[in-house]
Amino acid sequence: MNVDEEIEQLKEEIKRLGHKQNDGSYKVTFGVLFNDDRCANIFEALVGTLRAAKKRKIMTYDGELLLQGVHDNVEIILKEAA
């Protein structure tokens, strides 16, 4: 998969695992994404895909580099109509 395809797949996984907000965005924590078996099988570099999506302003989260365990409670927000 190329980066665009991985970002599209990540958007679908966030919609599957996350919670829809009143503004139409979706919210999920990094720990939920990282520990999901399906995501583990799809994404070789989940953190890299998240960074690429953040750089393109498709999603947002605090910090630059997310680490499993340390950042499990960091909220990742998939912006509305993304």
From TrEMBL:
The lineage of its organism: Eukaryota, Viridiplantae, Streptophyta, Embryophyta, Tracheophyta. This is Costars domain-containing protein. It comes from Lactuca virosa. InterPro entries: Costars, Costars_dom, Costars_sf. Residues 1-79 form the Costars domain. One of its GO terms (biological process) is regulation of actin filament-based process. Belongs to the costars family.
